[in-house]
Amino acid sequence: MRAVAGLLVGTIVGITGVGGGALMTPLLVLMFGVAPQTAVGTDLLYASITKMFGVAVHQNHGTVDWGIVGRLAMGSLPAAAATLAWMHYSDANQVKSGFIISAVAIALLITAVGMLAKDYLHRVGRSLRVTDASYFKHVQPVATVVAGVVLGVLVTLTSIGAGALGTVMLVYLYPMRLNASKLVGTDLAHAIPLALIAGLGHLSLGNVNYSLLINLLLGSIPGVLIGSYISTRAPLTFIRYAIAIVLGLVAVKMLTV
Q1: I need a surface site. Which of 6, 128, 134, 253 has the fewest CB within 10 A?
Q2: Is the whole model's pTM more than 0.90, yes or no?
Q3: What does the alpha-carbon distance between residue 147 and residue 124 come to, in Å, rounded to a whole number?
Q4: Which letter, b or e, does each residue of 61-99 get, where b requires 16 or more Cβ atoms within 10 Å of its Cβ?
Q5: Average pLDDT, whole number, for the chain?
Q6: pLDDT digits over 114-149, tens only?
Q7: Nearest to residue 71, comparing CAs of 137, 17, 122, 119?
Q8: How far is CA 204 from CA 88, 93, 117, in A?
């Protein structure tokens, strides 16, 4: 059953770049009864390994912008390391499960709103890019690093955001440089080092279930390969709206558990 969950989530990740933490973490908590801390840590390592296979497909299709990946990583990786250090030295990893569930639920709500507003943000970004191109291009690199910092903190605490919020930020920051396929490929490529560093940090805190990780990977690796192949050909708008609605419902459920 866990392998089937991995297959489903892996396919969605490959198609949209969204769903690793946003779908898997609440699925592990609500459906399989996994402790929230363990769900976050296991999901991070699961996501980093799964997305490597998706990026391989996107790289073969030339749909990864490594320049943008580097800018995001300049902010996200130090932020992830700093968040892990804070968790270690303040014993924040020992906080009550209820707090983690609430944090995950809030992250899901933010993600759902961001996904629903994605088209609007793309239009705003495109308008700014066209009407004030010199200023927009001047602040673009710094804004991308700042976006990386936000993702680094959020992903390390909840395992959510690398895919869902990452694509929303990129569609605003690079409205003309990234088409749909490049958006997914670039976001996936950035998510790998971020999820890996955060996952290894959680591993050191004892928040990873190895048996669960292996079962998820058995389904997710073929799933993400299938999804990444489909993503170069599929219209993604309907899928994105459907996922956003599901995430919103799941967030409400987690807040009322």
Answers
A1: 134
A2: no
A3: 17
A4: eebbbeebbebbbebbbebbeebbeebeeeeebeeeeee
A5: 81
A6: 878 888 888 888 888 888 888 888 899 999 999 999
A7: 137
A8: 9, 11, 37
